[in-house]
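User: I'm writing a tutorial on reading structure tokens. Could you give me a worked example: one chain, its sequence, then its tokens, then a sentence or two explaining what the tokens reveal?
Assistant: Sure. Here is the example chain.
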Amino acid sequence: MSLQWTAVAFFLYAEIAVDLILCVPFISAPRWRLVFRWGIWKLLSPYWSKCFFTMIMVLLVLFLDAAREVHKYSSPESMHEAQVNANLLDHLHLKLFRAQRNLYISGFSLFLWLVTRRVVALLKQTAVAVENNAGLQAQTESAARAADRHQEDNRALKQALLAEDQAVAEENRQLKLETQNLSTQLKTAKEAVHKSRAEVQAMARQTRGFEKEYERLLKEHHGLQNLSDADKKVQ
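And here are its predicted structure tokens:
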């Protein structure tokens, strides 16, 4: 195996190892996000996009070269030429095997390179979703506690309003009783005033009767006195 394909093979093995580590179930997405926040990644972040697309171009070129080699050694013309000599046929099969091996190595390296980037992006998105979910859960719990407090305040307010309504109803009942008592007293007072007026009118009539009787008696007295004076003169 040549140096370039050895490097591609080691790159493929490294990709497999990294993908297996990224897919470990007991390492959560938030922990991976903490790893991705290390300072070394911040230093490499300006060059990451260039490195990524450069590796894609290199692996794509190697993949196309391997595909060309496979097509070259598997063409009917090459097979027809190799059938003339048995040693040449074995050599052709060996080159075809190497070309197919290189094709698989470069193809899987290119595929896993894309998969690795996608897995890293999904881990970051999952970590953000988990943090947002935790934030939303905290907000939901806070809203639930606030709702409970509001319900308690509403119950306390309803109890206070009920107590106030009962107090107002009791006060209205007392006022109604006092009004009834005052009405009764006023009615009694009116009856007493009416009775007093009747008594006053009766006393006034009786007084007028006494005055008339007094005048009558006074007249009789003057008449009797006149008769007495006349009898004295006759004697």
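What the tokens reveal: DSSP finds five helices and no strands in the chain. The mean pLDDT is 80.
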